């Protein structure tokens, strides 16, 4: 099938309704925000046009004698600011950190919580060790370099698979494994009594979800599990605090990837070209749009039965380069 007839065929078979104008996306602040008694979200400022890479969120649960952190952020300046803000506001030290998955913007900061137990899925610990600390972390971000020499590898000290729970005062804090989804070791933290879920990177709000370590079809199933849970408030791994409404949008984007990716895979279109060719409609305003190219690489591997937990860096970089070349405005 040539490109023109391919496009006509897909337009007929895979159109997803009338064109919806791009979403207006909000800005959100860096803040420690109380969601319920003893439960806080920590978001990092971002918004339209801001590269959201490494601007992840965290959470805090207040116990009788210590604080529980949900993720430790990445660059030292972020991890230290989060830790100091929470300790000052809540007047207690951190005794436990839960890593929702291994990506550096969630685990690098572990070393700035000395003495705390670090809890993660078994796969998350292995992947944290395997990825290590790069020689020149965040070298393209001069504004994040303070404290970089203090960065040390600090993988989980305690691991599990399946589920685990802790008590913090009257709160039942449930850790639920949801991978393979965004990674093979995703964990969400659920507070049934408060109807709050810290979703980690299962949830991206107003930021393009990257599946560079993920499996998109099972990620959609993980979201369906969350959508069926008794939850009112969701803290995403990236983006402002929201609800199931925004999580359904994460799902809709991933579902679009599968529906639009499949025919392009079968037509042997390259992943980078497929990403540039897909009309993402209302998701076009989300930041980091080039991640659609990563997502095509992962989907193609899944369709071809060769998907592995590790990122195929060479293929991902090539796909993004091709995507950027094709998307660049012609001058
Ligand atoms: Zn991640």
Question: What can you tell me about this protein's structure?
Answer:
The two termini are 30 Å apart. The protein is globular. A hairpin with a 2-residue loop joins strand 1 (31-36) and strand 2 (39-43). The strands form two sheets. The chain has a seven-stranded mixed β-sheet with strand order 1-2-3-4-5-6-7. It has helices at residues 3-14, 76-90, 104-107, 122-131, 216-227, 244-266, 271-277, 291-303, 313-327, and strands at 31-36, 39-43, 58-62, 67-70, 94-98, 117-121, 158-160, 163-168, 171-177, 187-191, 196-204, 233-238. The protein is an alpha/beta fold. Helix 7 crosses helix 8. It has a domain at 27-254: Ribonuclease Z/Hydroxyacylglutathione hydrolase-like (Metallo-beta-lactamase, Chain A, 4-Layer Sandwich). Helices cover 34% and strands 20% of the residues. The structure holds zinc ion (ZN). Zinc ion binds next to loops.
- CATH structural class of the domain at 27-254: Alpha Beta
Terminal residue distance: 30 Å
Order of helices and strands: HEEEEHEHEHEEEEEHEHHHH
Round the Cα radius of gyration to an integer and report it: 20 Å
The overall pLDDT average reads 92
**Coarse structural class:** alpha/beta
Assess the beta-strand content as a share of residues: 15-25%
Coarse shape: globular
What small molecules does this complex bind?
zinc ion
CATH superfamily of the domain at 27-254: Ribonuclease Z/Hydroxyacylglutathione hydrolase-like
> What would CATH call the architecture of the domain at 27-254?
4-Layer Sandwich
Helix content: 25-40%
Oligomeric assembly: single chain
Might you state the CATH topology name of the domain at 27-254? Answer: Metallo-beta-lactamase, Chain A
> Biggest sheet, strands in spatial order?
1-2-3-4-5-6-7
Low-confidence stretches: 1-20
Number of helices: 9
How many strands appear in the DSSP assignment? 12
Largest sheet: 7 strands, mixed
